[in-house]
Design a protein that fits this description.
alpha+beta, 6-stranded mixed beta sheet, 5-stranded antiparallel beta sheet, 18 strands, elongated
Length: 350
């Protein structure tokens, strides 16, 4: 049996993580969730830094942890890890940082240096082998940390917010480089990130964790088409509602009704994109079946649009232009009318 099979059950204080993770060789699984969901606890359990309360971690057929009955020490697990702040040794050169894992496993100095230099060349930093971490840019430090994690040929690579410390201009290039290296990596990869673009562009499968439980898993397109929690919906930029459907009409428990493009019966999720929402100063004269009144609760600039939070029945996020904001005189507390075409609202079973 190859790949990672993990049942992670960890009880810490008042928090409990109970999540299953399966990762095939060569596959990247993105672990997503709000703060406090249990993502870092999951990485710690996989690395051997956090003990399991129950469950198992099996990598390529070898049991690494069986809730205390079998526990392989951290340094013998064949796991590489890249932390958010990289944790490079400040007193070592880039070359010696990369070689450190090999030397700690008993590899001779000359061989370790040769293999470390080869990895620095692969990440485009062979000319910076003598540099100390303080002399490296954020992107260069990230590449050194990745080389250090991969030089030992781990069976499992753990990435904890690997791009979070980078500025926007550097992030674009480093993300592309990371995608290339992950594509060449034959082992299993688990990526923790809060950034939806990182998740969508780097991961083959996404696992959404909330309050210590897996609430959804699927490919990025599957998650984007049919999110099953408010967090997942916000991640992919959709409004999400849950209600009771009778044909195309969905009654929402918090008040309000939505007309949808799909005919269903029973409990459903409804999703619609913020750009499909139009706002009006007065009730629009329209044949659209989704029209309701609300009040602006907040606004935020999003690239070339303004994200408007409207409280009503139901609440909704709308993406409008700055011109629309000016024309309607929108501001916190402003009354507005909301309009959405039924064809823009898609439902799917709970």
């Amino acid at each position: 049996m190859s790949g990672l099979r993990a049942n992670l059950a960890v009880a810490r204080g008042g928090f409990t993580l109970d999540a299953d993770l399966d990762v095939a060789p060569g596959q990247v699984v993105g672990l997503l969730g709000p703060n406090g969901a249990g993502k870092s606890t999951a990485l710690g359990a996989l690395a051997g830094l956090v003990p399991l309360t129950r469950g198992r971690v099996v990598l390529d057929g070898t049991c690494l942890d069986d809730a205390g009955r079998t526990v392989v020490p951290v340094e013998r697990r064949g796991v590489g890890m890249v932390f958010q702040d990289y944790l490079l040794f400040p007193h070592l050169s880039a070359l010696d940082n990369v070689a450190f894992g090999l030397r700690s496993r008993g590899v001779g100095r000359r061989e370790a240096a040769c293999r470390a230099h080869a990895w620095l060349e692969r990440v485009g930093l062979d000319d910076l082998a003598p540099a100390r971490p303080r002399e490296l840019s954020g992107g260069q430090a990230q590449r050194v940390a990745l080389a250090r994690a991969l030089v030992t040929d781990p069976g499992l690579l753990l990435l904890d917010e690997p791009l979070a410390a980078l500025d926007a201009s550097t992030r674009l290039d480093v993300r592309a480089d990371l995608r290339r290296h992950l594509g060449e990596f034959a082992g299993c990869t688990v990526l923790v990130t809060h950034d939806p673009l990182d998740a969508m562009s780097l991961a083959d499968v996404l696992v959404v964790v909330e309050s210590g439980r897996v609430v959804q898993r699927g490919t990025p397109p599957e998650i984007a088409r049919a999110p099953r929690s408010q967090y997942a919906a916000r991640l992919v930029g959709l409004n999400l509602y849950r209600g009771s459907s009778a044909g195309t009409r969905v009654a929402l428990p918090g008040g309000g009704v939505l007309e949808c493009a799909d005919e269903r019966q029973g409990e459903v999720f409804c999703a619609l994109a913020p750009h499909a929402v139009t706002l009006h100063a007065t009730r629009p004269q329209t044949s659209a079946r989704n029209v309701w009144q609300g009040r602006v609760a907040g606004m935020e600039q999003h690239a070339s649009t303004v994200r408007v939070v409207v409280r009503g029945e139901p609440d909704v996020l709308a993406d409008v232009t700055a011109g629309t904001v000016a024309d309607l005189g929108l501001g916190p507390g402003s009354p507005v009318w909301v309009r959405v075409e039924a064809r823009e609202v898609h439902s799917y079973p709970v």
